[in-house]
Design the sequence.
């Protein structure tokens, strides 16, 4: 395994969470909020030598009061959209490692085992891109205006998680190309930029973790018996 930089996306406004607090500041236990638990995971990994957190004003104010002393930790003000936040992290901080992981701040239940597996596989296979995925286990149907149009072969489709791993050069290149062309496509995840702007680059996958959910609604926490 090699040293890596992680960019943690923590600049969202939690419009779908339907709570008073930003979901990143939601307390999952007596001591940790969602964002603190996410940070703790990467702070515990000795191979993670640089942590860049893309934040908004509210998250920056909250984390600033926590008085983190770790020299690996850097905060960058994010932008309006997820891609803007990551781009700000890339252009406002010189990344020192050849490998970058990008992780959703709200995926606080990711395990160090998965992070290590990504690191090890990425380095051993000399990949440029590696992303975790999960198979779809329920019936999958295409629906239009609440009417079913067709049933989809679920074996051909997977849900994608973070952290996603990239070579630093590739990540810079696809982000620069996205903003250079002023592309208007909705970017669902960072590997999609590779599909758009580095078409010859293979996007490799490994099995992710069921526990590594993206907290979007309060019910997501209740599914793990961690809701209030």
Sequence:
């Amino acid at each position: 395994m090699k040293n890596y930089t992680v960019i943690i996306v923590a600049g969202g406004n939690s419009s779908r969470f339907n709570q008073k607090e930003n979901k990143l500041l939601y307390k999952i236990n007596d001591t940790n909020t969602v964002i603190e638990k996410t940070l703790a995971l990467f702070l515990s990994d000795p191979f993670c030598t640089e942590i860049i957190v893309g934040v908004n004003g509210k998250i920056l104010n909250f984390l600033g009061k926590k008085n983190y002393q770790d020299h690996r930790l850097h905060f960058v003000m994010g932008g309006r959209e997820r891609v803007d936040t990551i781009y700000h992290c890339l252009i406002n901080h010189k990344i020192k490692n050849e490998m970058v992981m990008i992780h959703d701040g709200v995926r606080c239940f990711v395990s160090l085992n998965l992070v290590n597996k990504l690191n090890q596989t990425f380095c051993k296979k000399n990949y440029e891109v590696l992303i975790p995925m999960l198979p779809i286990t329920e019936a999958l149907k295409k629906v239009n205006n609440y009417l079913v149009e067709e049933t989809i072969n679920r074996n051909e489709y997977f849900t994608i998680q973070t952290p996603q791993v990239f070579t630093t050069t590739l990540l810079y290149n696809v982000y620069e190309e996205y903003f250079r062309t002023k592309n208007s496509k909705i970017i669902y995840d960072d590997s999609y930029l590779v599909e758009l702007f580095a078409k010859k680059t293979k996007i490799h996958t490994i099995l992710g973790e069921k526990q590594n959910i993206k907290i979007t609604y309060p019910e997501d926490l209740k599914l793990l018996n961690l809701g209030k």
User: Anything to note?
Assistant: The longest strand covers residues 48-55.
